[in-house]
Design a protein that fits this description.
The chain is α+β, with helices and mostly antiparallel strands. It has 5 helices and 7 strands, in the order αββββαββααβα. The longest helix has 15 residues.
Length: about 160
């Protein structure tokens, strides 16, 4: 994997984990049909150093993953346009790794419960009923990182150093 060109703006692995923890959506990128890049926004959960997301049993996303498990996943933590400075104050993380369909029912259950708890906490009975009712119609996918990189605008770095 490439090293980050602007390494002085790199986030620590701890900062990357915090961004992945608090993010509400990310963009999964995979090799799509005929080698065309395929990128799709999706809901996810970051647990135990892995990204988990769900998908339908059939479709472009799962076909791409089955064809080539190498993917990347990007989460934008901040994107503030600063017109007077001709710049953007940004902070983002990219996870490079391999996606794996969770075939084991217990793994699948843990992953979907974590995802459900993130987006609708406090309703365990409703969550269980929804999961049980749609169990055969969805897959859970685990993205195991091989490299995680994060970068922020120089201006944000300077703000942090002054604080």
């Amino acid at each position: 994997m490439r090293e980050m060109r602007r390494f002085k703006q790199a986030l620590t692995q701890e900062q990357c984990g915090e961004i992945l923890e608090r993010g509400t959506f990310g963009v999964l990128a995979a090799a799509g049909d005929g080698g065309w890049p395929y990128a799709v926004p999706l809901s996810y959960v970051w647990r135990d150093g892995r990204v988990y997301f769900h998908c339908a049993v059939t479709g472009h996303k799962i076909d791409a993953i089955r064809a080539d498990s190498r993917v990347s996943f990007c989460v934008v933590d901040q994107d503030q346009i600063v017109p007077e400075e001709y710049t953007t104050y940004y902070r983002s993380v990219i996870v490079f790794g391999r996606a794996r369909i969770l075939d084991d029912p217990a793994e699948k259950r843990r992953a979907i419960e974590a995802l459900s708890q993130k987006y609708r906490p406090g309703f365990p009975k409703a969550m269980a009923a929804e999961i049980d009712g749609s169990w055969e119609r969805f897959l859970m996918v685990e993205l195991a990182p091989e490299q995680i990189t994060g970068k922020q605008a120089r201006e944000l770095m300077e703000q942090e150093q002054r604080a």
